[in-house]
Amino acid sequence: MSLPRWFPSHRQPPRPATAVSGPPPPSGPNGFWITDPAFRDRLHSATLTLLDTVEDCLNDDDVPLTEVLGGARDHAEHMLGVPSTYGVLVEAEAAAQIVQAAGLDAGCPFGLAIAQGLSGIEQLPAQQQQQLVRAAAHRYAINAPSRSPATPATAPPRPAPGRSR
Length: 165
Hints:
Elements: H1 37-57, H2 65-70, H3 72-80, H4 87-101, H5 112-122, H6 126-142
Helix pairs in contact: 1-3, 1-4, 1-6, 3-4, 4-5, 4-6
């Protein structure tokens, strides 16, 4: 049985469907993250965004504080503007700020003191939790590193020569 004339003699592979692409993922640091001031500023901004989001999400009494904080890694690229691999840094910093706002010792960023502090804070009413998160965000914003480059202090002008008192 021969093939019809209109049937191509060589089959072309099917074309892949064009995927709808979203925005490109956020870029990572230029070198080691702690030495890149622009990336540190983005991490700081992401922490403030996360604290604001946590405060808003605490309106729903069914969502515990740690669950709201834990979602940061999943939304780091789109919501926080940092690569997802750095979402855990933002989450840890926000958690430490909330624990410190409660007047508790946060210890190291990945230590047990933060977990214990968050567990205690979760026992508080949602309104008090929101107040602590708001206080943490306010204090974190005030203590933000300056974004302007440091300029050396200028010496006061010297008196003109030949003049005395």
